[in-house]
Amino acid sequence: MKTTIYLPKTLIKSNEPVAILSQTEYESLIETLEILSNQPLLKRIESALNNIRNGRFFSHSEVFSRKRK
To answer: Where are the domains of the chain?
Structure first.
């Protein structure tokens, strides 16, 4: 008989809550923590977002329709 468990799930082990995540959710969480702890990367992301807000960007068609030298 198949049992379906919907994740994330919280269980109690030794009177302490324990979380169970899917592998995908776990990897996503770790990746997010790595990004948030990388200050140079966060500064680059913020700079890119500021460029977008101020209209300093190229559209997909502008980038890929340019003739290469």
So the answer is: 9-59
Bridge partners (DSSP) listed for residue 18: 11
CA distance 2 to 14: 27
pLDDT at residue number 14: 93
> pLDDT tens digit string along 9-42?
888 999 999 999 999 999 999 999 999 999 999 9
CB-based contacts of 31-39 (< 8 A; 24+ apart in sequence) = none
Q: Which amino acid is at 14?
A: S
Pairing of strands 9-13, 16-20: antiparallel
